[in-house]
Queue: 2 jobs
Job 1
Amino acid sequence: MASDEDFIKFLVEQMEQAGAIRYRKMFGEYAIYCNEKVVALVCDNKLFVKPTNGGRAFIGEVVEAPPYLGAKLSFLIEEQFEDKEWLCELITITEKELPVPKPKKDRNK
């Protein structure tokens, strides 16, 4: 089952104070970016945040699951996304720990 775009828009609204938040549809599901870093995936209307040490410490009792078959484990955020302040803090922590994305190669060469 694909994710509902209204759910994505709700999550983006919840995260907006964490930085420059945007989303992109990918393979029928969605990636959520904060300051141009992929911080989370939304698959089957479930929020999966990229795992970081800081995120693990902030969450405490972490539930990990793969967003899709064959994917690495991510933090499954089930109900806490309703708490805007909590979610913004988690996304801020996650974004700060993730590396800057590598620049895309020029395909015209």
Note: The radius of gyration is 14 Å.
Job 2
Amino acid sequence: MIVALHPDNEDQRLRSLRNINILDSLPEEKYDHITDLATFICGTKSSAISLVDENRQWFKSIKGMATCETPREVSFCSHAILNPDELMEVQDAKLDERFKSNPLVTDLENPIRYYAGIPIKNSDGMVLGTLCVLDDKPNSLSHDQKIALRNLGRQVQELVKLHVVNEDLRVSRNQLKKHNGLLEDFAGTVSHDMKMPLANLIVTSDILNKKYHGLVDDDGRKYLKYLKSSSLSLSDYITNILAHYESSAYEVDDREDFDLNELLENIIELINIKHHCDIHLPEQNYQLHCNRVALEQIFLNLIGNSIKYNDKEETVIDFGVTETEDLYKFSITDNGRGIPKENLLHIFNLFNTVGEYDRYGNQGHGIGLSTVKQLVENLGGSIHAESVLGESTTFYFSVSK
């Protein structure tokens, strides 16, 4: 037996093999389909997708042989990878000086007499292993069979490239998840730390306005009023940021039974509506089984927006609800100013504002609808809006049962 030499670029080749993170991975049908085809097309007993590691060859897929790896020193593939662009065929291993005393050839129960392998490369041209076919008797592939084996080898290379892309995406996703977690922690900490100084500022501005109201001129009173309104706006902004990042904690499995109309009535009382508003609850009441706290946050935001961004003397809000086997489906329609069509795709983006002021003269922060979307998706649903400018807006959303 002649043990194959190592390729000149062996260190770089091994780094490439290990960087793709495929060694010792679980079997996958997409690779098994190729070995099935190779066996069928070449008319052999066995086939394998072999990756040649430092001291072993490991099989990503193998058909017709009951093993997952063999020592590198006895592998046929360690010879095949020495000629990266050539198909290596051994028609009778017993007649080949390299293999005639190989224990895989001399094995009495399952000998290897025939081998044909095409090297498999990564996108940088590094040889990782082979797609090979094997038999327990001498054989010879036809011209067409060799072409087919080469083509199947190219398919393996494409699968490996796709595997690398998926691995890169997985790593990037995990890193992004980690960074987002750190960002959420930072935003939460900063927001909490800012709330107390802001509360003190608001109280101080009230005290100054009451105690020194008659001692300051109109400009002074205007500045005090501006100080308080700005502080309140910033406090509202921080509250919305906290609500947004805390919304990720709501999960679909935190379910309870509750009455929908009772929930809506409690929300309407909580909002403390300051002008005439006609709200039509669903005619048919529903007993729901889902995350009550998250649904309350969703409706609180949407109802609040319907009232704040309404330019009519009387605000009208209609609720709709249906259900399927898996979902509760809700709609909330108002008779407000509407949303321009070009803005509908962006209204759920965090910090996205359209420059609109509410009926009280305050500009939105672009947090509320992003929070709503995150809550809805956490509950296994989806949300979108339809609007007629100057007439109405309807938000449709669903949550899983």
Note: The chain has two domains: 10-167, 250-401.
